[in-house]
Design brief:
The chain is α/β, with parallel strands linked by helices. The chain folds into 5 domains: 6-174, Rossmann fold, CATH 3.40.50.300; 180-241, Orthogonal Bundle (Helicase, Ruva Protein, domain 3), CATH 1.10.8; 246-355, Zinc Finger, Delta Prime, domain 3 (Up-down Bundle), CATH 1.20.272; 414-536, GMP Synthetase, Chain A, domain 3 (2-Layer Sandwich), CATH 3.30.300.180; 541-572, no CATH class. 55% of the residues lie in helices and 8% in strands. It has 27 helices and 8 strands. It has helices spanning 6-9, 22-34, 51-63, 77-83, 101-110, 133-144, 164-167, 180-193, 200-210, 214-227, 234-241, 246-257, 261-273, 278-297, 306-323, 329-360, 368-373, 376-380, 385-397, 414-426, 430-438, 453-460, 479-487, 489-500, 511-526, 542-550, 554-563; strands spanning 40-44, 90-94, 121-126, 150-156, 171-174, 463-467, 471-476, 505-510. Strand 6 and strand 7 form a beta hairpin. Helix 3 runs antiparallel to helix 4, helix 14 (278-297) runs antiparallel to helix 15 and helix 22 packs across helix 24. The radius of gyration is 30 Å and the shape is flat. The protein starts with 5 loop residues before the first helix and ends in a 9-residue tail after the last helix. 30% of the residues are buried.
Amino acid sequence: MSYQALYRKYRSSDFTSLVGQDVVKKTLQNALKSGKISHAYLFSGPRGTGKTSVAKILAKAVNCLDLIDGNPCGKCANCAVANSRECTDIVEIDAASNNGVDEIREIRDKINLVPSVLKYKVYIIDEVHMLSIGAFNALLKTLEEPPSHVIFILATTDLHKVPITIISRCQCFSFKRILDRDIVQRMRDIAQLENISIDDDVLEAIARYSDGGLRDALGMLDKLASYNTNTITMADMREINGLVSKEEIVEFIEAIHDQKNAIVLEKINFLYENGKDFVYFIEEMLEVVRDRLVDSFIRHDESVDVSFYNRFGNFLNQLLLQVKESNNLRILLEINLLSFMNSSGLQNSMLNDTSTQLDSRPDEVPSKKDSLDDNPLKKEKNISQADHSLDSFKEVVKEEPVKKVQNRVSYMTSELKKLRISNTFALAKKDLLTEIQNHWDELMDYTLDRTYGAAACFLADGKVVAASDHNLILAFPYESMIERGNELLISLEQVLEVVFGHHYRIVLLTNDEWKQERMEFIENKKKNYVYEYQEEPEIVNEQQTQVMEQSLSPEASLAIELFGKDLVQIEP
């Protein structure tokens, strides 16, 4: 085949032609000019952002005999060898298909062989996160202290799947999504070289559709050039990718706003029959919602129904998560949109009623039972099967009527954290955990509430991993979220009480901390260790801690500031 895809034909051959990634480019060029070449590099970032291209450029540059401002010259003998397919000193490995221990051991066995032609033997391992645990372990020592003539370049789209022991042995570079304007300019240049006639609005649409990946953008340009050999227009773009025009999207949203059920169903059926991309359609609706809110808050357009667009934006965000996991997108879209259109007004009034109720009882937290009893939707409609499930759930968590909680912890010490974890394990109930997980999405009903909105949004990003009648353990992806959550501790417990009608004491862990605690729990159970429930000691709040710290010496205060309260022990 003589034809070569555009993304391959116009792959960057040096740092000058590289699109975007200015920080990565500058750092590597300076390192090459000063001779500070590392033994191992790790490139991470979204697909199509230049990781493999930079790896090939770097492999050529470290072997170039006549570097020009940190760029490979492309003319010397070594550059010619590096560009040839027969080069044995630059080894590219696809970890997705070569992810076993044997493949890595083969590298380790051959690594001491000196390069046949070039100065350095360079191993480029693409999608390195696909390696097995055994393969990673086999790579560890070799990666840490390779021979002086060997350089490793690892690339991955999922950095979190790479063991920290591998990351710590590499010089890491994070590749960012390429800006739309840079993608548009690159495509415009290539279109001129290839004699492709294309409208500018199509180039901008391709850039948005590619989500920061230049390879995807060039692939789309390639496909459009094959579809229409004359001038490529937005009609071609929409036709070949199943997209919908912005005007149609605006009309569709207006029909939803006006609760025109028949028109909405007819439009969804039209999109389905014409093979439109529902995921992209929802994303484009989110863009329109964003634009309308900008019109209201920035341009002060009073014609915008801010309340509707706030609710609709939140609804679309949740719908997008469901659509990406569903096999029948049309029915899912129809059901959700009909439910939203015919209950959005009631939901809005419910939120307002809840806010008024919370404001009128500042010292108490209204129970879920109270909010359900006042819900006009429940009064006017028959209770569905989901409502029966909710009633049964309330029976599970109901031990006694919800009481006003006098004392709430506002500061989480390490001792209290350990106690709450132990107490949760002592009285853990699997059925209760399942019920709470099944109703966790109800937190989204409170994300727009002016009193508990921030706490509800925060909790929605977490996951309940263990539950008892008194305690919940919540897991979150990042340590920074735990720090933020501990600042919101009182609000988090209050909003949980509003949603589930029961007061729980909570403890927040990262996903890694939870894995460690769970493994320790399993090991203890094997040893027949018995967890015993213990009442929590007198509350230590942040104000009391601050008073205590005021009496500390300057040295002790500095130590707490540097290492944190949990790691510093003050002895008299």
